[in-house]
Amino acid sequence: MILEIDAGNSRLKWRWRGSAASSAGGREQLESALEHASRPERVLIGNVRGAGFEREIAGSIGQRWQLRPTFARVARACGGVRVQYPRPAELGVDRWLAMLAGYRRARGGCLVADLGTALTIDVLDRSGLHLGGYIMPGLAAAEAGLLQATAIEMPPAREPAAIAPGNDTGAAVRNGALFMLCSAVREALARLEHGHGKSMLILTGGGADALARELAPIEAVIVPELVLDGLAIACDEPGA
Fold first, then answer.
1. Superfamily designation of domain 107-227
2. What DSSP string runs through the chain?
3. Identified catalytic residue from 6, 94, 114, 122
4. 12-35 confidence digits (pLDDT tens)
5. Residues 6+ apart with CB under 8 A from 231
6. Which superfamily, per CATH, for 2-71?
7. All structural domains of the chain with their residue ranges
8. 2-71 and 107-227 share one CATH topology?
């Protein structure tokens, strides 16, 4: 058995490779889930929480199973994807893992959009060259930033955010945030396809369903486990 862990900014996600679905939660939920688990052959981790968390989770796994986990490290070339960052290690490992899995799924040009705490957009041409990306606040962060900078008072939400104009202040703020993020994805995809031809739009993260709903009729593929899927490529095919 192989245990795969995605340590994101706001939550942990984990699964046993080959299982139908993953679990998500905080550190306590992960520890509880592993309490009676059998010792895995390997533990693979994608971590964006920094060196402190890496030491803690490695120590916990070592104490539990006398096993050293493998942490994914961004490489200039892997799985057909080539990174143009002057210093590849500065690229977020979660973005990189999502790109590896996205390019493998698309088998050509693709745009990978991950909406969670932040919205990240990464574009790859048909040869697997990472053309670059964008990072911007996610829905909650965009709303919080606006409220912090203004005197707007938000009433409770009466219905889910959409991209239609809002008919009260709360809806206008929430819909405005989603409209902004959808517009960013739409424009990035249009630019990619203008220069590099038809490309697959791949969505992941907690806000993927909202993006897909409001981007229609643009066709999108939602892959909830995209970062976890990338772990196998990064750790099983290094330098490929």
1. ATPase, nucleotide binding domain (3.30.420.40)
2. -EEEEEE-SS-EEEEETT-S--EEE-HHHHHHHHTTPPPPSEEEEEE-S-HHHHHHHHHHHHHHHS-PPEEP---SEETTEE---SSGGGS-HHHHHHHHHHHHHHTS-EEEEEESSEEEEEEE-TT-BEEEEEEEE-HHHHHHHHHHHS---PPPPSS---SSPPSSHHHHHHHHHHHHHHHHHHHHHHHHHHHH-S-EEEEESTTHHHHHHHHTTS--EE-TTHHHHHHHHHHHSTT-
3. 94
4. 999 999 886 789 999 999 999 999
5. 4, 6, 44, 45, 46, 72, 97
6. ATPase, nucleotide binding domain (3.30.420.40)
7. 2-71, 107-227
8. yes
Dist. CA 206–CA 116, nearest whole Å: 5
Residue with tokens 């593929």: 221
pLDDT at position 238 is 64
| Segment 25-64, tens digit of pLDDT | 999 999 999 998 999 999 999 999 999 999 999 999 999 9
Q: Can 229 be counted among the known catalytic residues?
A: no
- Token pair, residue 119, equals 């919205």
Ramachandran category for residue 56: left, alpha or beta (phi over 0 → left; psi -120 to 50 → alpha): alpha
Q: Biggest alpha carbon distance in the chain?
A: 58
